[in-house]
Amino acid sequence: MKPPAEQLGRLTGAAIQAAILGTLLFIALFRLAGMVGGTQVFRYEGF
Amino acid sequence: MSCTNPNQTPLHTFRRGLATGLLRPSATALTATLLVTAAWFALCITTITPRWMADVNPRYLTTIPDDDYAYVTVQTQRMATSPPAPFAVLMLGNSALHAATSEPIVFEHAVQQPPAQPIPVHYLALKGLNPIHMAAMTELAPKPFRGVVLIQISQVQLAETADAQAELYTVPRIAVDSPMFDDELARVAGRPVTRTGVYFIDHWRFFAHRLNPNAVRHLFLGPSDYSPRYTAHLPQITRDDIEHHGQRLTKHLETYLTQRDRNRAIIDRIADRLRAAAPDGPLHIVLLERPGNPVVDDLVEQLNPDLVAEHRRYTNQWIADKNYHYWDLNRAANLTCDDFEDHAHIRWPESQDRYTRTLADRLAELVRDVYPTKGRDQ
């Protein structure tokens, strides 16, 4: 049985890891979707 | 069995657990990661709504200096959430109108009829705007819409093919909920537009493209320096450019005879819906000929004399049939070849000021003539 302080530490660490990775995963997925199928911003380059 | 040093304080133990939890993969962390991703998604769905878009500073959404799509989307949502006015002006045009306009506020100042209620002017000029965009914008105008709706047209716009317009299916450009947009798009694309009813999901392409390093920079360093004023992209037009534009426009006009009725029908449906929503009026539909380089236009006429003459006949018949106004202000604004960077985009600020003033004066004249008497009394 791990001490309660260590268990709390592990839980906090996992929560921080999840917050960081979850945010990065959201950005990565959405960014990937944007690159694959996002609306391109039309740049006028002459007629 | 875990080995713990009895001399370690709870803080040391906590830190050791924190490091383990932070760095070591675990089923708990993986589950929580997926939950956080889902939470971000849920936050976007619940936060990013048409109402939110009406309030947001569009400069946070602009990804490049001339990202008109974000700006016009926000302007359209603001118009949609504004109350109906006794009299208002709605201006719809593509980049040619945008390039010809110095400051939209000039129109707003020009049309006011004090001491009557202020007349709002909704100026929505968008690169590559076509009648399907117009359908969305007019549908979102507060109903009943009374006043003046100005729609920019040109022979090339009437020649635009259904295939070209069907690209809006995958590249919608603006993010607005409009059943009429969906109907018109389904008509040209030949397949229905499916919606979930959730704004963020239905317009994911619009938002996905805007989540980029610029967006992150804007969040921390402030919004972009986007200006709704048109900035010229090309150097001064040359003789070779004129020839090139003449040939390109001639190529575009190949589809004029087959596409004009279809494009006209979209505009007519827009007008009919507006009129049906405000049966007592006043509602004036103005077709504005696009600002054009006179030398290129002359060349196009030389190359296609019959087609250009046919367009004039067709337009005259059209405006007579539907009781539209038709304005071609190119001569009145004294536009010359040197004012343009190409066939339709005015390059110089002083030329933009001149065209803007001419259009504002004409608009003010119409508003003075048609503004309802009861409106003046308010």
List keywords for this structure.
heterodimer; A: 47 residues; mainly alpha; 1 helix; 72% helix; B: 378 residues; alpha/beta; Rossmann fold; 5-stranded parallel sheet; 5 strands; elongated
Model description:
The complex is a heterodimer of chains A (47) and B (378). Chain A is an all-alpha fold. Chain A is built from 1 helix and no strands. The radius of gyration of chain A is 21 Å and the shape is rod-shaped. Chain B has a 5-stranded parallel sheet, sandwiched between helices. The model of chain B has no long low-confidence stretch (mean pLDDT 91). Chain B is built from 19 helices and 5 strands. Chain B has a single domain, classed as SGNH hydrolase (Rossmann fold). In chain B, helix 14 packs across helix 16. Chains A and B meet through helix 1 of A and helix 1, helix 2, helix 12 and helix 14 of B.
In short:
In chain A, 72% of the residues lie in helices and 0% in strands. Chain A contains 1 helix and no strands. Chain A starts with a helix and ends in a 10-residue tail after the last helix.
Which structural class best describes the helix and strand composition of chain B? alpha/beta
Share in helix of chain A: over 70%
CATH 2nd-level architecture of chain B: 3-Layer(aba) Sandwich
Radius of gyration of chain A, in angstroms, nearest whole number? 21 Å
> What is the average of the pLDDT values of chain A?
83
In order across it, which strands form the biggest sheet of chain B? 2-1-3-4-5
Question: What's the gyration radius of chain B in Å?
Answer: 26 Å
Tally of separate helices of chain B: 19
Give the distance, in angstroms, between the N- and C-terminal Cα atoms of chain B. 85 Å
CATH T-level fold name of chain B: Rossmann fold
Count of alpha/pi helices of chain A = 1
